[in-house]
Amino acid sequence: MANDGIRLDKWLWTSRFFKTRSLASDAVNGGKVHLNGQRVKAGRLVKAGDLLSIQKASDFYEVTVIGINKTRRPAKEACLTYEESEASRLKRDQELQIKKLASASRPTPKRKPDKREREQLRQFKKQL
């Protein structure tokens, strides 16, 4: 293996985008990760300067690879291996604000329903 490259799934794991390497591999093989605008396999080598598009749950990241860690390091060191584009960061912030506003408009109960209220809810749901 070349010294200047590392497998894509391993880079995603060492850079802490995914909690396990198998989750990273599944995301790559599922088409959630693109390398330089192309869909690739988990074994593709990543080098400094490559552009990655990563979709994780509802979050979308566009990052440029700056460095490579061969092992998983603390989060403060892991974030030094990539640089996120400003457009990607702004878009994620906007989506976060929208989610906060949506959850704020929903009424939240002050307490959990007691036994009697739970039974009433079950009966109501059966009628539907």
Give a written overview of the molecule:
- The protein is of the alpha+beta class and 128 residues long.
- The chain has one domain: Roll (Structural Genomics Hypothetical 15.5 Kd Protein In mrcA-pckA Intergenic Region, Chain A).
- The protein is built from five helices and seven strands, in the order E-H-H-E-E-E-E-E-H-E-H-H.
- The strands form two sheets. Strands 3-2-5-6-7 form a five-stranded antiparallel beta sheet. Strands 1-4 form a two-stranded antiparallel sheet.
- A hairpin with a 2-residue loop joins strand 5 (51-56) and strand 6 (59-65).
- Helix 1 crosses helix 2.
- The longest helix is centred in the last third of the chain and has 20 residues, at 86-105.
Radius of gyration: 21 Å
H/E element string? EHHEEEEEHEHH
| Estimated share of beta-strand residues | 15-25%
| Number of separate helices | 5
- Fourth-level CATH superfamily: RNA-binding S4 domain
Q: How does the major sheet shape up?
A: 5 strands, antiparallel
Number of strands: 7
Provide the number of structural domains: 1
Low-confidence segments, ≥5 residues, pLDDT <50?
A: none
What would CATH call the architecture? Roll
Task: Specify the CATH class.
Answer: Alpha Beta
Distance between the termini: 61 Å
Which percent bin holds the helix content?
40-55%
- Give the overall silhouette: elongated
If you consult CATH, what is the topology? Structural Genomics Hypothetical 15.5 Kd Protein In mrcA-pckA Intergenic Region, Chain A
Quick check: average pLDDT?
Answer: 92
Alpha-beta content class = alpha+beta
Largest sheet strand order? 3-2-5-6-7
